[in-house]
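Priority: medium. Attachment 1 of 2:
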């Protein structure tokens, strides 16, 4: 173990944890020093919202801390029932099913729906939880690139021996900020009788007129078979969910091992997420503000002669630097100047594409963004 860890050290790939203390205005304290943080996925600042906190506090005093059992035993409380009802209403689907995390939702849903007679097409940039779900399902596993759908089409044409075909994609790719070409994927799926599964992790609360996600934004909600989301990012809480028909949710409830072999979410987390869904629905100005701030960062990055990857509306703003050493040095330089921006390295991203990954939040001030751009200018 020590040798392997030393080898990770040598390659600049060793990961560790640091203590982050949240401060107001998207700042945090690390080792006694205060930073502007561009690390988190709390895009709308809801993890610190007083109404979300009050909802959690009320539930804590009513229901205690832990739920004590899985949802199919005695862990499904009134707070869970209310969140399920709100998520179904919010996404415009008949029903919703909660999981302890988004990771568990993806692995559980994919392993429940797919088996060894099936074939699954998985985008090469998909989140690890989707890749793991595809891998553990036993289905024949094909990787595709969303910038080469012609190749996906050829593979689909060759897959007619399979019992069922699935196309699995992130709505917004977490390390790239691209939006999946959902219209084209849905058209291919319809031609080849495949089911589309979309993970809305980075899109819930951020994309779409009502904040429902990329499927809403692109207008493919009715063409996508399964939508999975997380409560852990823009909703500021923790947990995963799947929405769809009651047949789908009940089927997954009965077949997903990550569902019934894990304890249900704490009731206070459900109450917090319910309050966050209310805010997402009633305060669309937060989405507009997020877009403005992300746009400001993107244009600043262009002004200093660097290039920002990804969709222009995405709060994920990656700057690909290529070399691991370069990305790590740039992150360290930013940190010296008071900004926390993660360096993302392989294996999270492909070899040779190490990058800085800024996550913008409505907690940021325009001044934070101007200042971080000024520091980037010094890196060039
Ligand atoms: C973060 C993330 C997940 C996992 O969600 P958690 O609730 O943090 O477990 C799933 N999919 C994608 C695309 C993500 O970025």
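Attachment 2 of 2:
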């Amino acid at each position: 173990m020590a040798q392997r860890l030393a080898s990770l050290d040598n390659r600049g790939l060793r990961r560790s944890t640091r203590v982050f203390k949240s401060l107001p205005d998207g700042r945090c304290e690390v080792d006694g020093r205060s930073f502007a943080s561009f690390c988190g996925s709390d895009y709308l600042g809801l993890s610190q919202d007083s109404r979300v906190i009050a909802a959690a506090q009320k539930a804590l005093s009513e229901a205690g801390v832990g739920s004590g059992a899985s949802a199919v035993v005695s862990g499904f409380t009134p707070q869970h029932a209310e969140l399920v009802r709100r998520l179904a209403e919010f996404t415009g689907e008949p029903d919703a099913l909660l999981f302890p995390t988004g990771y568990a939702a993806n692995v559980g849903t994919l392993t429940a729906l797919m088996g060894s007679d099936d074939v699954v097409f998985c985008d090469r940039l998909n989140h690890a939880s989707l890749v793991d779900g595809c891998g553990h399902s036993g289905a024949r596993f094909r990787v595709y690139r969303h910038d080469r759908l012609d190749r996906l089409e050829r593979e689909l044409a060759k897959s007619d021996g399979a019992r069922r075909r699935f196309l699995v994609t992130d709505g917004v790719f977490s390390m790239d900020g691209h939006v999946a070409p959902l219209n084209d994927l849905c058209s291919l799926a319809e031609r080849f009788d495949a089911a589309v599964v979309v993970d809305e992790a980075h899109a819930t609360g951020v994309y779409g007129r009502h904040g429902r996600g990329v499927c809403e934004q692109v207008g493919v909600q009715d063409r996508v078979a399964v939508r999975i989301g997380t409560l852990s990012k823009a909703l500021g809480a923790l947990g995963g969910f799947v929405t769809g028909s009651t047949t789908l949710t009940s089927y997954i409830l009965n077949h997903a091992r990550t569902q019934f072999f894990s304890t249900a979410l704490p009731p206070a987390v459900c109450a917090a997420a319910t309050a966050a869904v209310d805010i997402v629905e009633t305060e669309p100005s937060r989405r507009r503000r997020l877009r403005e701030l992300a746009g400001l960062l993107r244009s600043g990055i262009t002004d200093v002669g660097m290039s920002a990857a990804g969709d222009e509306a995405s709060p994920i703003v990656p700057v690909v630097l290529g070399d691991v050493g370069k990305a790590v040095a740039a992150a360290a330089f930013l940190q010296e100047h008071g900004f926390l921006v993660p360096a993302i390295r392989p294996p999270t991203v492909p070899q040779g594409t190490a990058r800085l990954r800024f996550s913008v939040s409505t907690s940021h001030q325009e001044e934070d963004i101007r200042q971080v751009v000024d520091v980037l200018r010094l890196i060039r």
